[in-house]
Specification:
A hairpin with a 4-residue loop joins β7 (106-108) and β8. The chain has helices spanning 47-52, 62-67, 71-76, 80-84, 96-101, 128-138, 156-177, 195-208, 224-231, 252-260, 270-276, 308-312, 315-323, 327-354, 357-370, and strands spanning 6-13, 16-23, 26-30, 32-37, 58-60, 90-92, 106-108, 113-116, 123-126, 142-144, 184-189, 212-215, 244-246, 265-268, 279-282, 285-288. The chain contains 15 helices and 16 strands. The mean pLDDT is 96. The chain folds into 2 domains: 6-268, Alpha-Beta Barrel (TIM Barrel); 275-370, no CATH class. With 376 residues, the chain is of the alpha/beta class.
């Protein structure tokens, strides 16, 4: 394992890249999808099960962990990796996105954000400096700069003011992060759907200097067409020798579209959230196991899938345990979804390495267009 944080692109196909992020805790193969472990757990999954799906890195949530059980407590117990029994890389977000979602419970100033806990109403303050300290206590390998992310739609003036404050906060985050060998700090580009603001944000971040760069402020209500419109140019504003992370994305077609446009890392709660609500993602699109059409169906969700849900259980069983409210429903469907997402990433990496990404994407779209298998 490397003693430093580094990134190497090994192959490109168009704007898509595949490579390796080296960290002291292990390698991250890119393009990478990061399962979300909001409260130090990927819901319905054991850490070793998440690893078995092919995940190289997890995401933890600064906002939720600072409120419960508390960053200081996690530090006393040996850090987030030991606490949640995950010995590979962890990325923690800064808390900025969650604070955005608490707009009615917050007070925003140049200094930072004061907000009321969604758990018990207690008052808390987050700033670039406190976010860096919380993430240091957690011990994450990749730390995100503290930013402010306006929900879209918003006026261009609002987006510009928010972006420029986030860039000032990025500089403060860099100063507060300090010198932490083996750990990385990522800056976050903002600017809504305005090209000039995105370029201004990227230039500000490059002047500060980060180990990686995120594209923030998307997947917040603007729609896929607008998101892809931004991704047509935004990754090109960022350094080619650093990882590019698209935050909060997404659905399989979002992932493929982002990779085509030069994105290296993504995260989303979708695989686990969908699993808990009876939805499975397959090569042929979504399957809702709650639907009555599956009640007598002995076939697997996907006959080509090697996950436990597909190799050991029928659609009829998955339908039954979901309708009965059994915990195994969310466990099996989440495992399947995470397996599918990681299989998709592996396929993208292999296609880029072979220079066959266009053919891979054509087959991906053709299978999805077929829809789910016909009822018996």
């Amino acid at each position: 394992m490397s003693e430093k944080f580094s990134f190497q692109v090994s192959a490109t196909d168009g704007r898509a890249r595949t490579g390796i992020i080296d960290t002291p805790r292990g390698r991250i193969r890119t393009p990478a999808f990061m399962p979300v472990g909001t409260a130090a757990t990927v819901k319905a999954m054991l850490p070793e099960s998440v690893r078995a799906t092919g995940a190289d890195i997890l995401l933890g949530n600064t906002y939720h962990l600072m409120l419960r059980p508390g960053a200081e407590r996690i530090a006393r117990l040996g850090g987030l990796h030991r606490f949640m029994n995950w010995d590979r890389p962890i990325l923690t977000d800064s808390g900025g996105f969650q604070v955005m979602s608490l707009a009615s419970l917050r007070k925003l100033t140049e200094e930072g954000v004061t907000f009321s806990s969604h758990i018990d109403g207690s008052k808390h303050h987050l700033s670039p400096e406190t976010s860096m300290e919380i993430q240091r206590l957690l011990g994450s390998d990749i730390v995100m700069a503290f930013d402010e992310c306006p929900a879209l739609p918003a006026s261009e003036e609002q987006v510009a003011q928010s972006m420029r404050m986030s860039m000032r906060w990025a500089a403060r985050s860099r100063d507060a992060f300090g010198d932490r060998p083996g750990h990385a700090l990522f800056g976050i580009m903002q600017g809504g759907v305005t090209r000039e603001l995105r370029e201004e944000s990227a230039e500000a971040l490059k002047a500060i200097g980060f180990e990686g760069y995120a594209i923030g402020g998307l997947a917040v209500g603007e729609g896929q067409e607008a998101m892809f419109g931004v991704l047509d140019y935004a990754p090109g504003f960022l350094p080619a020798d650093k990882p590019r992370y698209l935050m909060g994305v997404g659905k399989p077609d979002d992932i493929v579209g982002a990779v085509l446009r030069g994105v290296d890392m993504m995260d989303c709660v979708l695989p686990s959230r969908s699993g808990r609500t009876g939805q499975a993602w397959t090569r042929r699109g979504q399957v809702n196991v709650k639907n009555a059409r599956h009640a007598d169906d002995p076939r697997p969700l996907d006959e080509h899938c090697s996950c436990p849900a597909c190799t050991g259980y029928s659609r009829a069983y998955l339908h039954h345990v979901f309708r009965a409210g059994e915990m195994i429903s969310g466990m099996l469907l989440t495992w399947h979804n995470l397996h599918y997402f990681q299989e998709l990433m592996a396929g993208l990496r292999e296609a880029i390495a072979r220079g066959e990404l266009a053919a891979f994407v054509t087959e991906f779209a053709a299978l999805r267009a077929q829809g789910d298998i016909d009822p018996l």
